[in-house]
Amino acid sequence: MTTEVAPPPAATPPPSGPYSVRLSVGRAESASRLLNFPLFIGTFIREVLLIPHLIVLAFLGFIVFVVYFIATFAILFTGKFPAGMHNFVAGYMRWSANLSAYLLGLVDAYPPFSMDQKDYQVVFQADYPEKSSRILNFPLFGMYIKYLLLIPHLFVLAALGLIAYVVLFIAQFAVLFTGQFPEGMHKFLVGVSRWSTRVNAYVFALTDRYPPFSLD
User: Fold this and answer.
1) pTM check: above 0.85
2) Cα(34)–Cα(4) distance, integer angstroms
């Protein structure tokens, strides 16, 4: 039983599309049997390995809320999300996306300790908006408005999350016997992550365009 982690494929930026927040994850030719061991044993190993990341992200998550809160006042008076704050929130979401992909077994390479786009299989992009909605980002109340608007998405994501759990459970057995993460399952889990990422990006004003109901 091999435990080697195959070198990650080169990160390829996802093609620019109609939506301003994009996520892609490269699929390696081989997958680690140890890190994807069935019954979520591999997932537990990944969680333990990610403890340093989780501690840092917990701290950064608090800062992101503060940054967004301050940014809402800037948006209220200027109609723009300050570029530096936008980049900081985008960097936090990129880091989070890297960890999510690693936990789901979509990548075996350990995530970088960075908010920047490194040579990694996970590519997250968020275009900087020329203008931001004062209503959707009104201090204190804008986020509540967004969550109300996102209720349909939250229901769908809850259902997709359950399906993703089953897909990952099956995929781990496939990796054990074949050494590869099934392409279709990989694509589905990336799609669920993409959908969730777009919803979170909408909440934190990386874009004011309502997220599409799509895995693509």
Assistant:
1) yes
2) 8
The DSSP output letter for 215 is -
Query: SS3 of 14, please?
Result: coil
One pLDDT digit (tens) per residue for the chain, 216 residues: 444 444 455 444 444 457 899 999 999 999 999 999 999 999 999 999 999 999 999 999 999 999 999 999 999 999 999 999 999 999 999 999 999 999 999 999 999 999 998 889 999 999 999 999 999 999 989 999 999 999 999 999 999 999 999 999 999 999 999 999 999 999 999 999 999 999 999 999 999 999 999 999
**Residue (of 120, 122, 115, 109) closest to 46 by Cα position:** 109
d(CA 175, CA 179): 4
Print burial letters for 12-36: b (CB count within 10 Å at least 16), e (below 16).
eeeeeeebbbbbbbbbbebbbbbbb
Rg of the Cα atoms in the chain:
18
Spatial neighbors of 164 by CB under 8 A, at least 6 apart, are 104, 188, 189, 192
Q: How far apart are CA 154 and CA 9, in angstroms?
A: 32
CA distance 122 to 164: 18
For residue 110, report the phi and psi dihedrals to the nearest 5 degrees: -65, 135
The DSSP line for 78-132 is HSS--HHHHHHHHHHHHHHHHHHHHHTTS--SPPPS-SS--SSSEEEEEPPPS--
